[in-house]
Amino acid sequence: MGNQMLGAMVNEHYGSEGLLDRILTVARETGIEIDEARSDDFSAVSEFHIGGRKATIDLGNMAQLSAGDKVLDVGSGLGGPARTLVEKFAVRVEGIDLTHEFCLVANELTRITGFSDRAVFSQGNALSLTGDSDHYDVVWTQQSCMNIEDKRRMLSEAYRVLKPGGTFIFQEVFAGDREGAIRLPVPWARKSEMSFLWPAEAIRNSILEAGFIENIWKNVTTQYLEEYRVTAEKTRDSMQSSTLGVHLLLGNEAKLMRKNVVDNLSKGLISVYQGVFKK
Q1: Is the entire prediction scored with pTM above 0.85?
Q2: How far apart are the C-alpha atoms of 120 and 125, rounded to whole Å?
Q3: Distance between CA 207 and CA 151 in Å, rounded?
Q4: CA-CA to 149 of 20 to 30 Å: which in 11, 34, 37, 82?
Q5: Distance CA 68, CA 70 (A)
């Protein structure tokens, strides 16, 4: 599939007109004072990866982030992880995402929460990063590679823009250890043409072939399975009330999508890994 066609599919899948208004309206209904909002107030909708905000903080600790680090967040979504990293680790973040609407919302939520001087988001492609070579201290990606078909090119670009000694860190969904088609829809895809899940060892080998040195490689599927069951149940409940959550961007299929993730994890059709690699 061509990159342009895939990009259009990704924007159609994630893009949702009026998303910012929906988020702010529900935030007000739940008692959040927008002018006094904190980053964590929006985490339920802006950190919609497995493990949520806690997983972001755990990854930041694994990466041993330092104050002032220049971080490139590939597939930055609504900016939740980036704001968490700025708040907890005093880094500076540039986020890129294929979805135009996500970038608009991410920048506005970042302005509202007071982090615009340390985090900025723009539309971009992981296969053609605009940054100079040897530019970033950290390249970060948190469950965005499922929509990337040419993973070797993405890894090559991540390696190029990292400074020597820089860190590539990720939490990603891979294929599981059992063969078979995954149950759809899932949060990252309604159609199989949008989901590109490689086996863990194929990813690991590709990372090493790109030139990276392995520091940490962790299968966290079991760790997050039960937690995600609870998240899926909360998604069902939140759709019945005015609550911040992933349903605001995924719509009425959010409950089914998260249920399918639990089923796919339980059946070994998908897995979740975390990794820290050095250039």
Answers
A1: yes
A2: 15
A3: 9
A4: 82
A5: 6
| Cβ contact 220:272 at 8 Å | yes
Coil/strand/helix, residue 70: strand
Which domains are delineated in the chain?
Answer: 3-278 (3.40.50.150)
User: Phi and psi at residue 80, in whole multiples of 5°?
Assistant: -60, -50
Tokens of 279: 């250039």
DSSP code, position 269: S
How many angstroms separate the CA atoms of 73 and 110, rounded? 14
- Residue (of 181, 179, 177, 205) closest to 195 by Cα position: 181
User: How does pLDDT run across 121-177, given as a tens digit for each residue?
Assistant: 999 999 999 889 999 999 999 999 999 999 999 999 999 999 999 999 999 999 999
**Residue 176, exposed/middle/buried by CB under 10 A (0-12, 13-18, 19+)?**
buried
Over the chain, what is the mean pLDDT? 93
Query: Which residue shows structure tokens 């007071």?
Result: 114
Phi-psi region of 51 (alpha: psi -120 to 50; beta: other; left: phi over 0): left
pLDDT at 236 over 80: no
Where would I find the H helices in 37-166?
A: 43-46, 52-63, 80-89, 100-112, 151-161
